[in-house]
Every structure is written in structure tokens, then in C-alpha cells.
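yo

u said u wanted the structure for the complex thing, so here. seqs first:
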Amino acid sequence: MISKDKYRDRILVQRAIQEVKDTVTQKWSIMEICGGQTHAFMQYGLTDLLPKEIELIHGPGCPVCVTSLELVDKAIAIASREDVIFTSYGDMLRVPGSDKNLFSVRASGGDVRVVYSSIEALKIARDNPGKQVVFFGIGFETTAPANAISVIKAKEQGIKNYSMLVSHVRVPPAMHVILSSPKNRVQGFLGAGHVCAVMGLKEYEPIAKKYNVPISVTGFEPLDLILGILQTVQMLENDQFQVKNAYPRVVKYEGNIQAKKIISEAFIECDRQWRGIGLIPMSGWKLRQEFQAFDAEIRFNVGHIQTRESEICISGLILQGQKKPFECPAFRTICTPQNPLGATMVSSEGACAAYYRYGKESHG
Ligand code: SF4
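structre next:
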């Protein structure tokens, strides 16, 4: 097994950066899809080490940021009920809904609990048969297998007081939206390594071909990120519009076949609202007909809740790579991590939070 230290080795990273410098001959705009990668670039100071020809554009790959306001309001409505124990990843508690967040529901006496997985929520349901236990199932392809397992197990074990508020989103449809926009500036992509570890590379090939964009599937350590940039720049400089794997120690071409099978057992593709972006056709997963008894939207009859986004927040443009956080007039003034106006400031993976934390105030 190779030590993680290798992927943080300063000399190896510097060598890879030099290779990028030796390869690049013109300006290129590259989007890292994943919010975790956005943070890693800034945390390790890599954005300042890259040649000035490379502009990084931050993508929509933050599950907390893209969970629609409508679903946050539905979560708040369900969590406010006396018969409910509402369980969620911690980041979601601070996400602003239309007029409050899940923290304020808890402060007013709601039973809102932070969990680390849907399996933990299922255990809470087993331990509290007199309560309805709801899990806020957010996330990209990465968290979908575990969430699928929780409803499969609930059905198998006859756990009737468990349900899930499903907000799963899929990366490829969002890439189509970004690339087909007349305002698109993205010329190449770093694919999200953990998503591709589940789904594999195949569904990205038609995207690379249709829009003439190279895609390099990339990990999260400094060396992974720079090797992903290098691979993308090499393809851009050579007019190669392919999908390549810069993270082979984790990602296989076919992905994780067992995980994909579990996902399709419980979920089916559906249209999904993305916060700040809007409806993206077939960009989400919902529970299949045979698991609808575990669908919290149906169980608690919250399907009618509709909302409108804040007019100040430009997080939708940020999530599509059309604006940077410092271009928002509210950034650092009325919008801070302590008082977030939009989801990209709340989540630890959000671009606004990354710019705030690492002091990025301008281009360069
Ligand atoms: S700084 Fe705040 S208001 Fe502006 S885009 Fe980011 S989250 Fe929205």
C-alpha cells in the first residue's frame, strides 16, 4: 500500500507543477467539479503555484449547496412535527430555508439529530418505534449506495417508522447544463474521483465528445490535483477530447458494479431542482415505486411546498462557474459563515466558504 504522504510530497508536487508550466502555451479555464477539490486547492495553496495561464473555475459539486430551497423547507416542515426525529448530516442544519433553518427548529424543541450515515438513522428508527425517523438523503452518486441500502434494509426488516427525504443529484446532467450555456467558459474538467469510484468513466465519454472538452478524473491530495491539471492541460494542448483517469488507485473504468446495482435497486432517475440553478432534467434520483412507503415527501404530504430563491445571492452563477464569490456584493459584508445568505457560504465544501476561509478576495 502506498502511503498518503507520497501524494503530499512537496518535491513531487513541485515537479508536477513544473511539468504543467512546461506544457501550457496559452490560457485555459478548467473546472473542478467537486467542492472538496476546491477546498483542497486553496488549503494547500495550489492555486497560487499554478501558472497564470490556468484559471480554475469552481463547479457545482457541493451536495449541501445544490440541495434546493424547496427541499430544505420541506425538511424544516417535517422536522417541526412532534412525532418526528429528523436526522441529517451536520452541514445541512445551518442551510438557510425560506425563513429559518434546521438549527432553529431544534432550538424551538424539534428533535433534530446529526448523524454520519443513513444506517445510523435506521438504527435510531429501530430504537424508537414510537417515533417517525426521517433521514435527509442528500448527496451525489457517492452517498447514494449507503442511502439505498438503508431503505432496502428497512423494507427487509419491516422497519415501518423509517423514511428518507431524498435529494440525490447526479453530476453528468449538471455538466450538460454548464457546457450548453451560451455563457460557458469551461474548456476542461477535473472529474470528481469519489463519484467516479462509484459510477466509473463511461457516462463521461459522450460529454467529452459532444462538447469537445477533456475530462481528467482526479483525486483530492495535492499531487492528485496537480496530476489532474497536467493531464487536462496535455489534452487541451493536443486537441484531445477524451476522458482519462488520473486517480487509478481508487477509480476503475467500470466503477463499482456492486454499488451501482444497489443504487438501481432502490432509486430511479428523475428531474431535480438544483439550488440557484433550477430544474435539471433527469439530474436526480428518487425512490422506486416499490420503496415509496419510505419516501418522506409522500409520508408527510409536503409535496406542495414551493419557494423562491433570495434575490441577493448569486450562488447559482457561482455554481455554474460564471461568477466568483468575491463578485457577489454580499460576500464578506452581509454574508459570512456566521450569517450565511446562501448555501455556498454554509457548507464546508461551498466555494464562498472556501474564498472566505482562505482569504481569496480577487482573481489571481
Ligand atoms: S457570498 Fe453569500 S450571498 Fe453571495 S453568492 Fe455566496 S452565499 Fe450567496
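Residues 312-315, 318, 325, 328, 330-331, 335, 340-342, 344-345, 352 surround iron/sulfur cluster (CB under 6 Å). The longest strand covers residues 278-287.
cya
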